[in-house]
Amino acid sequence: MLIKKIYEEYKQDVFVYLVSLTNDTSLSEDLVSETFLSAIKSLHRFKGESSIKTWLFSIARNKWYEYLRKEKSTTSIDDLAYHYIISESDLEEKAIQRDISNKILYLLDQEPKRTKDIVLMRIEGYSYLEISQKYGVSESSARVIDYRAKKKIKDILTKEGSLHE
């Protein structure tokens, strides 16, 4: 009964969020289904450290990343980098998007190799568990490395005026 209530309360929010990422209502409908199937399977792992809506958005974003990974030949790393850093913002003009994506990748190139690789893995949709296993660090460490790099990049882009929070 709990999952039915969650589904009814949040399905529209998850759908709108996915449409903002994909710009494709049909794909978004499919991803909503996948999101809630995944939520059902992992409900026992939900610790309440975030709101259910935030948790569902995270699952939805990961489902979208999985889709992009499968469709990698049609999606550039520039697009993935942009959506990773600006995932909740309205999509801007393509020229601005490309410019910001290039800046993000340039800033990532300035980071230590491990940090850059971890962030690129997150951009491509890998889980913190997968990253931690590859780099021999804890999931928490992978999260911290990713968070700090993402925050640093956002701060630089905001200071430059490329991003507006």
Secondary-structure blueprint of this entry?
Layout: H1 2-22, H2 25-42, H3 52-70, H4 77-85, H5 94-109, H6 113-123, H7 128-135, H8 139-160
Could you give a short description of this structure?
By secondary structure, the chain is mostly helical. The protein is built from eight helices and no strands.
N to C succession of SSEs: HHHHHHHH
What is the number of helical segments per DSSP (H or I, 4+ residues)?
Answer: 8
Strand content: under 5%
Rg, please? 16 Å
Shape: globular
Helical proportion, percent range:
over 70%
Regarding quaternary structure, how should these chains be classified?
single chain
Describe, in plain words, how this protein is organized in 3D:
Helix content is 75%, strand content 0%. It contains eight helices and no strands. The chain has helices spanning 2-22, 25-42, 52-70, 77-85, 94-109, 113-123, 128-135, 139-160. α1 (2-22) packs antiparallel against α2 (25-42). The protein is mainly α. It is globular, with a radius of gyration of 16 Å.
Structural features:
single chain, 165 residues, mainly alpha, 8 helices
